[in-house]
Amino acid sequence: MSDDISDVASDPRLARVLRSSLTRIADGPDGPMREMAREVLAGRTDLRTALREPAYGEHLGAAFGRFWTDFQAMSPDERDRLVKDTRQKLDEFNQ
User: What domain of life does the native source organism fall in (predicted)?
Assistant: First the structure.
């Protein structure tokens, strides 16, 4: 891949995961995020530009805030398990 997604995620495995995530978002119920994902996947905008747009940034910031709150509430063992599981799923996704 030599598109914008690969530029953002230089690891090819992460680029595939990011593209897959954008595809799921593009098919999802969240209007502004669905629109952003469709624009990026269609090549009408690049990911960096889209994420700087206030309408999209607010939604992304809110989602990250929820994740960060949950992550901070985890015990160190839970965090380690999350990292391990995420790495394993990343490897499985890219086989």
Answer: Bacteria
**3 state DSSP class of 24:** helix
This prediction's pTM: 0.69
Of 75, 73, 36, nearest to 53 by C-alpha is 36
- At 94, phi and psi to the nearest 5? -100, 15
Yes or no: say if 18 and 46 are a contact pair by the CB < 8 Å rule: no
Mean pLDDT by runs of 10 across the 95 residues of the chain is 65 83 91 91 88 84 90 96 88 72
Q: Are 59 and 32 in contact (CB under 8 A)?
A: yes
Contacts of 1 (CB under 8 A, 6+ apart): 12, 15, 16, 19
